[in-house]
Structure formats: structure tokens, C-alpha cells
Amino acid sequence: MIKKEVFSGFYCSHISQDVKEIESEYRIFSNHWNEAIEDYMKKEDEPQVDSEYVQLAYLYAIIWEDFSLASLQRDKNAIENILFVTLATTISNNILAIISLSLNGLDYQAMNIMRSLYEICLLLLNISIDEEKRTEFANSAKKENSYEVWRKFFNIRAMLETLSAYTDGTELSEYWLGEYKQYYSRLSSFVHNDFANMYIYSYNQIETESESRLLNINGHFVTRYNEILEGTINIIWAVSRVFSYIMEDENHEKFIKQILGDHSTEEFRFAYNGCYLADYYYLKLKNIIN
User: Do residues 170 and 249 lie in contact, with contact meaning Cβ atoms separated by under 8 Å?
Assistant: First the structure.
């Protein structure tokens, strides 16, 4: 709540110095403030925080938190570790932000962060696979040529082509340049503030035609969280699966040993085993396995 002395100071300076008038207007303002905050805090229908998509999203956030901590413990000064810790931490926190926003009815805002998650995940995989890209990205801050490095190495096409080539021969090889690329276009429309998306996501999501579409002022309606978290999980599942390949790849053994060491730390064991648990959970949710 805005402090009374701040409100009074503003009112005296710009509107009136009448004490009774100030008291009356502050009460009206306080009531309006409380109604708005209550509308935001008390949802029309409380989300089911124990839903499988919510829980799996939390699991992935914990996995990437553990990867970050394992790398920090391994070596906090090496540039490879600094890069990995930074990106893994951002991935974990982005997932948590999407969970929080979607559970609070802030759907459009969650979709914007999902686009950020998408690109950061691709960035992490690219620097893990390609040593040249890793070096260029690490040096970009010192050289102040981040834009040039992005255009050459980290535009969406370059990153997806790197992943497609790396996963060639696996079930994901065509995924990057097909379904995954199309999903990027959809997410980009949120970042670029496409009017149709802003309009649709300003209202609650209806389940039947008989329901009324209501303006989602103050995030009062929580109706899309499972849909948003399913999209989030689709991204992080594919990325985590590829990172699992990289951890087992002899060609990247030196890099993995540098950033994560071996399985001697609790965080690495949690993250490593968590990837396989989350993969199993995801495939069951999608009815790919029984």
C-alpha cells in the first residue's frame, strides 16, 4: 500500500491542502487499492499446483539448478564453467518464472519468458557441442561484438542446424528443423507483441462455447497454466535429452569433465539421474510409453 504521507504530500502539492478532503480521498484510494490486490491474490479458480505438468516443470527447474551448482563447485573461475553456470541458472530461473506467472494468470507474460527459455536452451546446447561457438560467445563481452557473434553463430537457423547435425540418426534429428522451428515462430510472435496474441491472452480461456470470455484484469483467471507448462516442458525435455547425449559422448568428454567433473558430487548425481527420471515421466505423460 502506498504510504499515507506520500499520498498526502502529493495531494497537498497538486490538488488541495484541505485535511478532511485528503483523508476522504485516501480512504477511497485505499479501498480501490485493496480491491485490486485482492482480485489479483484471490483467483476465480485456484490452480491445481499438484498437476503433473506443474510438478514436472518444477523437476526440470531443480535439475538445471543442480547442474549449475555442480559446475560451480567444479571450478568457479574457468570460462567454460562460468558460461555453463550462467546459462544453466538462467534456464532454471526461467522455468520457475514461467511456473509462477502461469499459476498467477499472467499468461502473456509467461509466453514471453518461454521464448527466452527457448533461445537460452539452444545457446547452451550449441556452446556444449561446438568449441568455436563456445570461444566466440565467451569472448564477445570482452570484444563488445555480441551482435556480430549472434548473427554469425547464434541466429536461430544456425543454432538449429548445429543441433540437427549433432542429433543426426536419432529420433530428434528432423525435430529441430521441423516442429521445433515452427514453435519458435509462434513464440516470437509474443515477443514482437502480435495484436492477435495480446488480444486473446488478455481474456480467460474458455472450455465450451457456452462460457463467457472475460477480461483477465489483474490475472484473476488462471485458465492456461497446464497448456503453458506443457509447452515449456516440450522445450526443456528435448534440450535435456540432447544434453544427456552430450554427457555420454566421448567426443565431448573433456568439456563435460571440465564443467561437471564426475559423479562424485551430490548435485551432479541429482541432475544426471533427474534427467532420466524426467524423460521417463515426460514420455508417460505423452503416452509414448506405458
Answer: no
Element holding 258 (H helix, E strand) = helix 253-260
What is residue 148's three-state secondary structure? Answer: helix
Helix axes 79-103, 107-129, angle to 10 degrees: 160
pLDDT at 167: 86
CA distance 4 to 16: 15
* Alpha-carbon distances of 155 from 117, 147, 184, 249, 290, rounded to whole Å: 15, 10, 12, 25, 38
Please work out, in degrees rounded to the nearest 5, the angle formed at the alpha carbon of residue 194 by the alpha carbons of 161 and 53: 65
Q: Is 203 helix (H, G, I), strand (E, B) or coil?
A: strand
The dihedral over CA atoms of 277, 159, 118, 88, expressed in degrees to the nearest 10, equals 60
Judge if pTM exceeds 0.85. Answer: yes
Mean pLDDT of the chain: 92
Question: Across the chain, which distance is largest between two alpha carbons, in Å?
Answer: 78
Grid cell, residue 275, equals 534427467
256 sits in which H/E element: helix 253-260
Cell 486473446, residue?
200
Q: Please tell me the predicted confidence (pLDDT) of residue 194.
A: 94
Q: Which three cell numbers stand for residue 203?
A: 481474456
- 215: which DSSP letter? B
3-state SS assignment for residue 145: coil
Pair 67, 271: CB distance under 8 Å:
yes
Give the pLDDT confidence of 18-29 residue by residue, as tens digits: 999 999 999 999
**Other beta carbons within 10 Å of 133:** 20
- For residue 203, list its beta bridge partners: 215
CA distance 28 to 25: 5
- Hey, what's the cell of 271? 541432475
Q: Where are the domains of the chain?
A: 49-129+154-285
Residues linked to residue 215 through DSSP beta bridges, in sequence order: 203
